[in-house]
Amino acid sequence: MKNDNLISSMSSDSMEQLVLVIGGSDSSGGAGIQADIKSITVQGAYAASAITSITSQNTQGVQEIFDLPTDLIVSQIDSVISDLDIKVIKIGMLNNIDLIRFISKQLKTMQLVVDPVMVATSGDVLVSQKVIGIMKDMLFQNAEIITPNLAEAEVLSGVKINNEKDQLTAAKELLKLGSKYVLVKGGHLEGEIIKDILVTNDYEEHFEHKKISTENTHGTGCTLASSIAANLAQDIPMKTAVKESIDFVVSLLSASPKVGRGNGPLVHGVKLN
């Protein structure tokens, strides 16, 4: 894994592998900005951040959410990109229409990795239909890759996903929204083998791995998307960036010790074989 040579890989005179993450803060450290920063750092890149919301949460649930004003979020983004030569931007949950418009217009020339967080574990949709519409119409067309899970892919594509064939159909529908790549994660389908599907206009790739029996799954989507962003910042081709990131998450799922009393997070610093 990359973390074996983390110090040496980040000790050059000028750091070029810079990633800006835009998303919410998770006070328990399991997901959101905290998971993004840990994932990117372990993967050998540098993480800057713009926080969109502050949450009070732990492994048992979310107790409170405070969304930051749009001008403060934009100020964070402007501050970072005016000084740091950001190579990739990773975007998490967005429920702010003005912010989506700003990112779509002002950051459209950047490599955008979009994790469209919009469906809770319960199945409840977390953002409005207007937000979903603007993401589809404005944000995705500028994205390098979007990384929905099955529930998010269903909401965005309108395709009911019951099997791998449906998963591929949804991925191809989402590709029509304009991103260069779509990765539909298959972790919630029945079966012992999980299949994640990457599609582009030139090819499709199916990544298979065994389902890991664990409750420590908090932050897997954030970790995967941030790892992809870190790999892209290091000029790793997309197919390899996705495969290495999936392997990274699977390794963490297998090795992470229990944290907290609920559904625990991935532990990014755990020693991997």
Strand order of the largest sheet: 3-2-1-4-5-6-7-8-9
**What best-fitting shape do the alpha-carbon axes yield?**
globular
Helix content: 25-40%
CATH fold topology: UDP-N-acetylmuramoyl-L-alanine:D-glutamate ligase
Low-confidence runs: none
Separation, N- and C-terminal Cα atoms: 8 Å
Give the mean pLDDT.
91
Count up the domains: 1
Query: What structural class do the secondary elements suggest?
Result: alpha/beta
- Count of individual helical segments: 9
Write down the CATH class. Alpha Beta
- Give the C-alpha Rg: 17 Å
CATH homologous superfamily title = Ribokinase
Architecture, according to CATH? 3-Layer(aba) Sandwich
Number of strands: 9
Question: What are the key terms here?
Answer:
273 residues, UDP-N-acetylmuramoyl-L-alanine:D-glutamate ligase, 9-stranded mixed β-sheet
If you had to describe this structure to a student in words, what would you say it looks like?
The chain is α/β, with parallel strands linked by helices and 273 residues long. It has one domain: UDP-N-acetylmuramoyl-L-alanine:D-glutamate ligase (3-Layer(aba) Sandwich). 37% of the residues lie in helices and 21% in strands. It is built from 9 helices and 9 strands. The chain has a 9-stranded mixed sheet with strand order 3-2-1-4-5-6-7-8-9, with helices on both faces. Helix 2 (32-42) packs across helix 8, helix 4 (97-106) packs parallel to helix 5 and helix 8 packs antiparallel against helix 9 (238-255). It starts with 5 loop residues before the first helix and ends in an 18-residue tail after the last helix.
